Hints:
By secondary structure, the protein is mainly alpha-helical. It has helices at residues 31-34, 39-51, 55-70, 80-96, 101-118, 121-138, 148-164, 168-179, 185-200, 211-224, 228-240, 247-267, 271-288, 291-308, 312-334, 338-424, 438-454, 465-471, 477-488, 492-509, 511-514, 519-525, 531-542, 546-559. Helices cover 74% and strands 0% of the residues.
Amino acid sequence: MAKKALVILWLVVAGAWQGAVASGTGRLKNYDIWKDLPSKTLMEMGLRFYDAGKPDSALLSYNIVVNRYHSSDKHNSTSPRQACAALNFLGILYTNYFIDHAKANRYLLEAQKLAKDNHFMTLLSCTYTNLGNIKMKNLIFGDSIMDEETLQMNRLAFHTALEANDDPLVIITSGINWIQLLDDTTNYRRFHQDIDLFLKYPLPDSLKQYEYTKTFARAIQERGKKNYDTYLQLLDSAYAHIYHKNMLSKEIFGEQIINDKCRFFIEQRRDKEAVDLLFKQLYKGQAKGDKYMSFIYSHSLYQYYRNIKKDSIMGDKFELMALRYKDEFMNQTHLLDADKAEFLFQIDEINAEVQELTTRQRMTKIIAWSTAAFTLIILVILYLLWRKYRQVQENHRQLYENNLALLAVDDERRRLLLEYAAKLDEEPAKYQSHQMDEGEQSDLLHRIFYVMETSDEIYDNDFSLERLSELVEARSSKYVSQVLNDYYHQSLSAVVNDYRIREACRRINDREHYSQLTVQAIAESLGFKSYPNFVSNFKKFTGLTPSAYRKQHQSQSHAE
């Protein structure tokens, strides 16, 4: 019944633009004077015109600011923040006064991008709210009032304002706009945390006139908790305290509260109270000549009698009345007077001329230097890339050959150490004192060498100092640690990593036995738990990444 009524909150129509829109005739004669004013002055003028109910003059002011931002002329330049605010006002004007939602949406989408790119969070919140208003107005005469996209757009506006937290008025406005969409039980259950968040937000002393918004939010909260008597009391309290400097906005918030009460009465089967309130509002709309308001309440009465009371006679009566008011409202909304149509046409012509002139200026500058500069840049880039490529390839080749030489030396060292260690293997190490002499240290060092060169256990993930001490038959792991520090000047993990990296180089070079394995598989087989850690250690040891090392090996093999 009352699902159409929620749209009232968003509509600045039906009586708003009657008399509010000042005549467009003669306004454009100010263009040549205003176009040289600073952008700050134009923004202030636009706001004054908007508040005074002169949308045509406001439109001209904001239009100059936006055109100046788009222009390549730096004289009296517009800042991105000013442009974003002006685009929002243009979106509002084309939504509510000039009834061109395509243009409004285009301006607001540009404002949204500008706000996101420059992190203007407060302006971004305003933009989301204005985009939500367009969606609501587009649903005005559809089969449904609310869709998920519209719901989420207004929720996003509220949370973006909270994130910015630099303009309490934007937070309060976006919050109440969002919360007024949560007037049914289903939405309350889904988003009750947002109402709690809104109620916790402190209202500054400068905005105490918006206290009714908190009262309305508490009413929605109580309804969700099924405290219906408290809900009605809070609605009445909110209605009594509504204040807004714009009388139209005051009426809109008031109508929202009345429609919530009507819906509640019908849901609770308090039919007489609901019908009395609907008739009261219908008569009020008829007395004011408000076609939209008359349509809303005659349509609500039609739904009540047709769907709830099953009274086809009364249902038909109010259906015909609703259709009549709908036609009158649509004709009233879409009929622009000649002055306004001419004014908007001239605005469009100015925009087209500014855009064409700006495009021509930019193209002239671009054509003057772009071809030569582009060619030169491409040649320089190609030369630098070629030079860098050759340098990198040469460095990789030298690093690979150096590593091959080091591996060859390491293999010879391993052979000699194994021969020497084999002799020591017959005599287990024994230390009688707390201190080792030079011979004992040398003996233990060679046993450590032997284990590191021959044992596959060093490639186990859990290889430890204690295990190494067992393998070399040391009396204490502290002797092994001492030898490692004295001769390697490294910890065991660093020493083991070096051995593992050397073995990785050998396996990458050994195509006969390991060509089927990926580099990552080789790393895992050598005890590296983390592939990025393996890559880091490999590059630190060889100067090349594993993939670059394998590529150099393949290139060398093909060359041979």
